[in-house]
Amino acid sequence: MKTAVQFLALRTIVRGYALLGDPYAGVMALSPNRDPYALYEKVRARGDLVRSRMGAYVSPSREICDSVLRDNRFITATFDEASMVPITLVRDGEKVVNPVQDSFLMKNPPDHTRLRRLVQPFFTPRALKDRTESIRRIVANHLDGLGDRFDLVSDFASQVPIQVIADLLGIPDGHQDTFARWGSALAETLDGVWSHKQLKNLHTTISEYNDFIDVLIEERRRAPQDDIVSHLVTRHADLSREDLVATTGLLLFAGFETTVNLIGNGVLKAFENPHTVAPLAQSPEYAEGFVEEVLRLDPPVQYTIRWPKERLELGGVSLAAGTPVMLVLAAANRDPRVFDNPSAFDPARSNAREHLAFSAGIHYCIGAGLSRIEGAVALHELFKRFPGLAQDGPVARRRSRLIRGALRLPVRTNETKRSLAVRQS
Ligand code: HEM
Fold first, then answer.
1. 200-to-88, 103, 172, 363 alpha-carbon distances in Å
2. 25 contact partners, CB below 8 Å, separation of at least 6
3. Among 292, 325, 367, 401, which is disulfide-ready with 352 (CB 3.0 to 4.6 Å)?
4. Parallel, antiparallel, or unpaired: how do β-strands 325-327 and 57-59 relate?
5. For the segment 19-61, what is each residue's pLDDT rounded down to a tens digit?
6. What Pfam families does UniProt report for this protein, alphabetically (predicted)?
7. Rounded to whole angstroms, how far apart are CA atoms 53 and 224?
8. Is the CB of 357 under 6 A from ligand 1?
9. CA nearest 134: which of 161, 103, 102?
């Protein structure tokens, strides 16, 4: 009951401030069907570091976002620490581990450094090179199973990254749909928990995930294989249960909830820019540049937040310790001081890689290289297989403001019977 009242108060305050034009509340209250980029441009017109009446600051500037992310006087905080509505769940006297909030994504040095180091070896350029062939196979297998009408997101874009990360972790096949459901529930809460229903859904999801991963951890302890979970339980046997469950969960959910949207946003960009389809289908190198431009122009992670741990000066403003600074990565990626004609989609743009879609500094995305390969292979092979792919109904958007992407995107292949016969012969 207490939380229901807290949620109502929170929603009312945020919506009220959003109506008054507050930048922080504006982002938080944005409806999934509205164009966030128009709002970010309004913020940009007000400056590089805009004060919110909710006690936060918002930055659309690439320079400020980048400098904050690389500055160790700024730290991350969990929802509970940031004194939003507490969301921690305790079951039978034991904390149920939240794979996002309790993971190293939300930790600061030295814990962050210690935990990130344990899994870093699986994401080196060498390790990724070894994975590329298996990613190609996964993509080809999923393409083989598609009919002439399908949902791009649930039938393809989410299947590929789920299988890639599940393989890396050592999770057997057959859980795709469950992971997709858990992933959506977690992603929805990344920018805050706004209702009692959402909190209950989150608690059910993390309880189910804890039960699931405990079984796998036990199996891998008994019979280790060549995967991340086995590596953690055998080579780092002193790791606490909380760190083990959170680290594997972070990799699992960060591994697909983001990449699914890179693929989905990429397909939408190809539909909006039909001249890109032929080169995308013909050239793997073009696909790499295409992916970089999608990451810049329509990034799956739209913003992140940091808090100064001491009073400091930023962009000419004196910030008190603990003031939230919302870094709008998606707006920084359109900073006209860095990117010419920033709202145009140009896969040949020479400095697209200066985007902040993967953040920067110590929390720079550990899976950046992996998702770049997945995105480029998936988009290249998809349009190579179905050059006539077209939208076949309205897009339904994800409900999160932090994660941007399609939840459903109906498509048809437009393949004639003849071209199908040629392909099969
Ligand atoms: C297009 C796909 C992806 C995007 C846009 C993306 C974006 C991001 C961003 C923005 C952050 C940092 C957030 C912050 O600074 O607060 C991050 C961190 C992270 N990402 Fe990704 N990510 C993607 C794919 C992946 C994949 C495939 C994996 C795993 C296999 C992954 C694992 C992680 C992890 C573990 C962190 C935490 C890093 C740390 O705190 O040190 N991500 N990601």
1. 11, 20, 28, 29
2. 13, 14, 15, 16, 17, 18, 52, 53, 54
3. 292
4. parallel
5. 999 999 999 888 888 899 999 999 999 999 999 999 999 999 9
6. p450 (PF00067)
7. 53
8. yes
9. 161
The answer to whether 90 and 204 are in contact (CB under 8 A) is no
Ligand 1 neighbourhood includes 366 CB (under 6 angstroms): yes
The domain in which residue 248 lies consists of: 2-424
Residues 277-332 pLDDT 10s: 999 999 999 999 999 999 999 999 999 999 999 999 999 999 999 999 999 999 99
Query: Cα dist. 208→102, 212, 263, 390 in Å?
Result: 16, 6, 27, 37
Ligand 1 pocket mutation, candidates 186, 259, 365, 400, criterion most atoms within 8 A of CB: 365
* 116: CATH: 1.10.630.10
Q: For residue 266, what are the contacts with CB-CB under 8 A and spacing of at least 6?
A: 290, 291, 294, 375, 378, 379
Pull the structure tokens for residue 407. 């939840």
CB 414 within 8 A of CB 390: yes
251 ligand 1 Cβ < 6 A = yes
